Amino acid sequence: MRKRSGTEVFRITGARQGLADDVRGRQRRYVISMSVRTLAVVATVALWNVERPVAIVTLVVGTLLPYVAVVIANAGRENAPSLPTTFVTAPTPPMIAPPSVPLAAESGAEGTDRETHGN
């Protein structure tokens, strides 16, 4: 039997998603967004002479969605907050405590102040 020397062991379940999976997921989100945009443009054309306020809303959605889709697709990889850090911190030095003053010295100092003010 081996003894562990206190080294940290990493679990594979805390690993990040693979790069190919990440790219595939971004492409999927982009295609879905562009499909919704296409439906919005088609709805705009179909509703323009029938229901103009709804057609204007679908036109705005079809206009803004490409920007939003690109921003979402290029958002980058997810952060994995559960992963251990690779940054090694230096040990913090102990704080220096203030010198302790004996109680007798404190009461003697207060007493001399009272005597001088009383005269």
- Return the string of H and E elements: HHH
Give the overall shape, derived from the CA principal axes. Answer: elongated
The secondary structure category is mainly alpha
The share of residues in extended strands comes to: under 5%
Number of strands: 0
The biggest beta sheet reads:
none
Radius of gyration: 35 Å
Mean pLDDT: 75
Distance between the termini: 83 Å
Counted by DSSP, the helix tally is 3
Low-confidence stretches: none
What does this molecule look like?
By secondary structure, this protein is mostly helical. Helices cover 56% and strands 0% of the residues. It has a domain at 15-80. Helix 1 (19-47) packs antiparallel against helix 2 (52-73). The model has no long low-confidence stretch (mean pLDDT 75).
Task: Name some characteristics of this structure.
mainly alpha; 119 residues; single chain
How are the SSEs placed, and which strands pair?
Blueprint (H helix, E strand, L loop, with lengths): L18 H29 L4 H22 L29 H16 L1
Give a quick summary of the entry.
The protein is mainly α and 119 residues long. The protein has a domain at 15-80.
